[in-house]
Amino acid sequence: MSAASYIERVLAEVKDSSPGQDEFYQAAEEVLHSLAPLLEKEPKYEENGILERIVIPERSMIFRVSWIDDAGKVQTNFGYRVQFNSAIGPYKGGLRFHPSVNLGIVKFLGFEQIFKNSLTGLSIGGGKGGSNFNPKGKSNNEVMRFCQAFMTELYRHIGETKDIPAGDIGVGGREIGYLYGQFKKITGSFEGVLTGKGLNWGGSLARTEATGFGSVYFAQNILEKNGMDIKGMRCTVSGSGNVATYTIKKLQELGAVAVTCSDSRGMIYQEKGIDVETLRQVKEVGRQSLTEYAKLQPDAVYTPVKEYPEGRNAVWDIPCDVAFPSATQNELNEADAKALHQNGCKLVNEGANMPSTLEAIEYIQSNGMFFGPAKAANAGGVAVSQLEMSQNASMERWSFVEVDTKLFGIMKNIFNTAYDTSVEFGHPGDLVMGANIAGFRKVADSMIDEGAI
Length: 453
Description:
- The chain is α/β, with parallel strands linked by helices.
- The protein folds into two domains: 3-190, Rossmann fold (3-Layer(aba) Sandwich); 210-368, NAD(P)-binding Rossmann-like Domain (Rossmann fold).
- It contains 18 helices and 13 strands.
- The protein has helices spanning 3-17, 22-34, 36-41, 44-47, 50-54, 103-119, 140-154, 173-187, 210-225, 242-253, 276-285, 290-296, 334-342, 358-366, 374-377, 380-394, 400-424, 431-450, and strands at 59-68, 74-85, 91-97, 125-131, 163-166, 234-237, 257-258, 260-262, 266-269, 301-304, 322-324, 347-349, 370-372.
- It has a five-stranded mixed sheet.
- A hairpin with a 3-residue loop joins strand 8 (260-262) and strand 9 (266-269).
- Helix 7 packs across helix 8 and helix 9 crosses helix 10 (242-253).
- The longest helix has 25 residues, at 400-424.
- The protein is globular and about 60 Å long.
- The two termini are 24 Å apart.
- 53% of the residues are buried.
- The model has no long low-confidence stretch (mean pLDDT 97).
């Protein structure tokens, strides 16, 4: 069977077995199609049924989470943990608390995590989890009670050599603290079973900054490979969580100007550049809308979502040299990509998980723009999570500079691995193909070594 026929057969099986899970199907389609050159060259992957196996999680848990709100009423949410692949190490991947979370979302995130984690060069497998619980608008006590109820089920499925969750959208330091406290109370064990922990109880310096910093380091490698310097470049960034905030911070440290940020209600455009400390105060400390940022920064222009062009994200209408989609999946579509191209954008570098649609990626790559795919560009967070695990195991604390230096090296190695693999398979600079093949090959070869399990 040809590689193309093999891929299409497996994708048809994915679609039949996972109805309504559009994001998962999209992630599988993007990865599998890019593997064609490897599958043509190496028939062992088809002979060992690797594609059929790698698209099915090793284990998926769906559970009920019941908790008491401040009015004394019982509330119930879904909880999920998908342990996708452990061929190269224990499952590793974040927890997402957001109303959009369902099994398909968690499977897409877990599937992407397999290859992202493989690319880091570290011994970590892929998993993901979360809940349709929304922390926005909840009191600290309500968030605490939910986290305790969630961990009361999750604890039995995780462990420092089995599955090590971290944060994601809706799960920051506060939530990790409540989750870890409940795990410790139930198990009586103080171990590195979660990453993103507080610095006083096992966390790592630079973990909060890691995904954003790593995304910029990856973009820096792309630009330098093509004879450009990020210094002086005008950048647009979507989102206002950890990824976006620390993308903006690192860009400005390197002499670039980040002029936008956004949240679910609207976007900020500030020509002189976003003020990171104000953004942190509004979002990290105050957990407020960006309307508050506009009040504190009078020269900032706020545009609510209702004023965006239909089907568009207004962030991508701002002229830029580099775009950093850093909010959520499928936030950048083909129309957005066309707007970026028309406004002179040279590079789209993905900070969020799968933020660009397949049509957008095809347009970007077909029109002379460079593209940094998420599974490579946003791997900094999970890389530093693994560094946190190493520090926990050795009972050491590394300095911020030590961790950041290791992160810089990891991101450079990821870029070199993806680029060299793209050259190996005759598509120099196609980092989607390079990252997918490199990430897949390490996992798939390990699966073959470990037998049909």
